[in-house]
# Entry
Amino acid sequence: MDQNTNLNTDFDISQEMNRENREMNRRIFVFIAAIFLTTSLPALALYDLKPDPMFAAIQGEWRGTLAYRDYREPANSAASASAAGAVKPDNMVTLATTLFVALAAPNALTLHYVFDDGPGKTVYSYERMSFDLEKNQLSWGSGAADKPATLYRITANVMEQNRRKLLFERAEGDGIHRYSLLINATSFSLEKNEFDAKGAARLRNRYQFVRPGI
# Structure
């Protein structure tokens, strides 16, 4: 056997050993990754806090209505209303509404509203509510896009007729916008009232829901 034959044989053996080493390293990596996924992730999950029972109880689907005060001027009455010096109409409008509630964190909710706004017209709304009951604060954001949330002050957190009642508000100009949330496992209501500088209240909107089939 000449020298060239020996060199080729040594090269082939070296190539085969490199392939075996790469395969061994791949198997070791897969084995270590499998151990990490089956042991580390459950351990990390143990650090998640138990959800607030009040919020856990209202997860799922709700059916009901949205009633809101409609300030829009009818298109065919704008001229006559302006001539008469009349204020804009503020009739209450009611829409059939479905609500889906889910937990985003132990003390945070995601709300997905589906509104029946007339024949062939469906409207959607997305909201996020994060409660800090120790600091009496609520961070409330809306919209599908990541928009800055609005901060509200929680003024009451009590039980009332077998329902949890939360009141929260924020200043708007010279007045106050105040919300009342009443919830339990079978009923959900959220009402907004606007208070002027003199303290007079005016209902702006009200959501009322029950569980499907009730």
Remarks:
- Confidence is low (pLDDT under 50) at residues 3-7, 77-87.
- The first strand starts at residue 60 and ends at 70.
- Strands lie at 60-70, 91-105, 108-116, 122-132, 137-142, 150-160, 163-172, 175-183, 187-195, 201-210.
